[in-house]
Amino acid sequence: MNCRSKGLLASTPSNRILSAWLLFLAIVALAPRPALAQINLSATAGTPAASYTTLKGAFDAINAGTHQGAIAISVTGNTTELATAVLAASGSGAATYSGVVITPRGGATRVIGGSLDAPLIDLDGADNVTINGLNSGGNALILTNLNTGAAALTLRFINDASNNNISNAALSGSGTDNTRCRLVLHWHGYRQRQQLSVQLQHCSAAGGTPTNGVVSIGSAAPAENSGNTIGNCDVANFFNASTATVGILIGSGNTQWTVNNNRLFQSVPRTYTTANVHSGIQIASGADHIISGNRIGFSSGAGTGVYTMLGTIATRLIAIDINLTAAAPVSVQGNTVSGISLATSSGATTTFGVLCGINITGGSASVGTVTPNIIGGASGVDLLTVTSLTSGALLAGIHTSSPDAVTIQNNTIGGLSSSGTTATVAGSVTGINVSGSTASLTIIGNTARQPKRQQLARWYQWLYHRKFTGIGNQFRYCLAVRNSQCCKQHR
Questions:
Q1: Which residue, among 352, 366, 315, has the nearest Cα to 436 in the 3D structure?
Q2: Burial (0-12, 13-18, 19+ Cβ within 10 Å), 202
Q3: 227 secondary structure, DSSP code
Q4: Residue 367: C-alpha distances to residues 31, 114, 249, 291 (Å)
């Protein structure tokens, strides 16, 4: 028998077939593979289904009319957006849709992210868009723009984008331009006023350190941004060491907003290097706003820790700042300002002082008339504290200089402390401070507790020797001062 070795694969018909298959598999294994699709889209008209690697890709297809009708977008993986994902209005160009719903899928946290000196997501006149992070079954959604440029922001509503709802999502951004409001969120309307009905609910705008957290800048009447809500959100870590910052800014060109049940906090101490006035919530235009149930202070959304502001410059803070035009109504109810510590060089002794819970410089405000606001707290000490390098630093619970009708009623103020960095530097505390003249001012049924014992003399001076200038020039009722050595009702 003649036996010869023919190697591992002898040249037989079966071995030749096997070799061909191995070569094919090797080519497939080494060939470039297309990126996995992170965005799955379904539609009731046009092309019924497709997959994309970015949200921008899906939006571009919608804008081109490829997908129409009711559109559902499932985010099944993380995306890196290299350019702004712009969704145009239905009826603009070839876009034809009745609504767009975006949700995460797959039981994991999904991230739509990028680093753009521009909006990450731009709803340009787009209506009926829902972005729901779900926060259930392991599903969650994060929208993040890592860029720190002047035009960087995470989500923008522009050109009358209406009837949109953002819920259960985390938004992160670090945009730095304070003057143009290119920040985490931005509403901007251009046409005739309408009820935009943009809802930001149960979201977290806590990632990154943008100069401002949530911002609305509209156009002049009659094209204001109107009928929007920011509710049940964490708005945190808005910070810029060298310029003024605001957590929620309802700027020019706005009216009829509801800002309710939000939590504004700083998760770590912040050191400021330039003297500025910072704000938690600032309302600067329009009328018929409702500011209710918000909590400003602490270092977490759970209301623990301390909102700490450090520095050796003249830093000042207003938790809720209202500055509206003549007689514009605003309701400020059931808010809590507590857990704040401010280090400053400011010795401001008038108006809102160095630290103020609620400041009203314009508009017809109802403060606590439905639900009491709490400035500091009903018990405890050092709930709001100022430590200054300069004597006189005023900590004011509530201040008004509005020329319009203002009612301050049923509020609780206590646990306020202002002191100096040395024994020779003294601070000052005022429960309710009134400056300027007003058409009508009612201060009734408020409760104020004395500051710390070493500051009792200043509290006593405020009550007895300043003719109640701290609480409004002998109106029907001043403050009911409880739990102190000067406990009596003043009329």
A1: 352
A2: middle
A3: S
A4: 68, 42, 19, 10
| Backbone torsions φ then ψ of 367, nearest 5 degrees | -115, 105
The answer for 61, left when phi > 0, alpha when psi is -120 to 50, beta otherwise, is alpha
| Tokens at 353, concatenated | 């002082």
User: Which uninterrupted H or E stretch holds 247?
Assistant: strand 246-250
What tokens were used for 131? Answer: 């972005």
Say how far apart CA 337 and CA 358 lie, in whole Å. Answer: 9
Q: Between the CA of residue 16 and those of 23, 129, 296, what are the distances in Å?
A: 11, 58, 76
- Structural domain spans, the chain: 35-260, 273-287+306-491
| Residue 478 three-state SS | coil
DSSP string, 303-360: S-S-EEEE-SS--EEEEEEEE-STT-EEEEES-EE-SEEEEES----STT-SEEEEEE
Tens of pLDDT along the chain (491 residues)? 333 333 334 455 555 555 555 555 555 445 444 456 899 999 999 999 999 999 999 999 999 999 999 999 999 999 999 999 999 999 999 999 999 999 999 999 999 999 999 999 999 999 999 999 999 999 999 999 999 998 888 999 888 888 999 999 999 888 876 543 334 455 554 443 444 567 777 777 777 888 898 888 888 888 788 889 999 999 999 999 999 999 999 999 999 999 999 999 999 999 999 999 999 999 999 999 999 999 999 999 999 999 999 999 999 999 999 999 999 999 999 999 999 999 999 999 999 999 999 999 999 999 999 999 999 999 999 999 999 999 999 999 999 999 999 999 999 999 999 999 998 999 999 899 999 888 888 998 888 876 554 443 344 333 332 323 334 332 322 333 332 222 233 33
